Amino acid sequence: MNWEDETTTAADARLVTPSADTEDSAVEAALRPRTLDEFVGQERVRQQLDLVLRAARQRGATADHVLLSGAPGLGKTTLSMIIASEMNAPIRITSGPAIQHAGDLAAILSSLQEGEVLFLDEIHRMSRPAEEMLYMAMEDFRVDVIVGKGPGATAIPLELPPFTLVGATTRAGLLPPPLRDRFGFTAHMEFYEPVELERVIHRSAQLLDVEIDPDGAAEIAGRSRGTPRIANRLLRRVRDYAQVEADGRVDREVAAAALQVYEVDTRGLDRLDRAVLQALLKLFGGGPVGLSTLAVAVGEERETVEEVAEPFLVREGLLARTPRGRVATPAAWAHLGLTPPQQAQGASGQQGLFGT
What we know:
It is a single chain. The protein has helices at residues 3-12, 22-31, 43-59, 76-86, 102-110, 128-140, 177-180, 194-208, 214-221, 228-245, 252-261, 271-283, 291-298, 302-315, 330-335, 342-345, and strands spanning 66-69, 91-95, 117-121, 142-147, 154-159, 164-169, 185-188, 211-212, 249-250, 319-322, 325-328. The chain starts with a helix and ends in an 11-residue tail after the last helix. By secondary structure, it is an alpha/beta fold. The protein has three domains: 17-188, Rossmann fold, CATH 3.40.50; 194-261, Orthogonal Bundle (Helicase, Ruva Protein, domain 3), CATH 1.10.8; 271-349, Arc Repressor Mutant, subunit A, CATH 1.10.10.10. Keywords: ATP-binding, Cytoplasm, DNA damage, DNA recombination, DNA repair, DNA-binding, Helicase, Hydrolase, Nucleotide-binding. One of its GO terms (biological process) is DNA recombination. ATP binds at residues 31-32, 73, 76-78, 139-141, 182, 192, 229.
């Protein structure tokens, strides 16, 4: 298993990971909105996408190819299904890692129906040969299938019916410009505001038959790291707590008690996040400290700390990446209720004391 697999495993074990597990996938299928009107949040993207789809329907044409980028759990898969629903078209779902050869992509493309939506998740992880085949398929609705090997190989052109490709990526910068330029509409998914997550939670609670008051929804939303998938997962865990330890109704006190049991604090930090901050503050005086040293201090792999814990801590303004290493911000000291030592105030002027 490579380090990416190890990082994924570590992330999936956390309650606040934005990655989907088997349970999430099953529940999301039931909670997923079916139309743009039902979709909560992402107002700018919804408005732009609505114009694209309505114009295509009025012309009686296939919708332009769509590229959705953003962090996991923000609704890219949901939007792809909404696109298919709004266009009254079937949808085919696959992912970049599953397409390792041009032949894999050719088999999928050749079986598409006219107007069908092809959703390609993690499109940036597709193999280069398949990527190059996709250029022609997106632009000319045609692929060249190579038959034979060596000097006797022959390229047979295969015409494709018009289709809509919806690509999703968490790392848009890894997409080559020729591929990115072939999408007629691109959208970046933003993290949700707490008030938007409250709407998501109320809608999900209604579908799950969970009685929740506004204060309980606000408590969960504030700890959901701006991600609907995390909000829905926390709602299910709070529901379990309310069912076993309370009367089944979720209010602020019940939600807070439940999330304390699951070690999710008021800002959405979990055990790993706090372990990183505590090591940085208590062992290294707030930094700067190298990533490898910090990972050893918390007993995790370097990649786990960098890919799983750091992005949220940086986004929350609790940790900063500098050329000399990781540095805690004043907000980190305040969040853990610690007083920064005098030397921490001048830490930014130190050299890389704790390595890389």
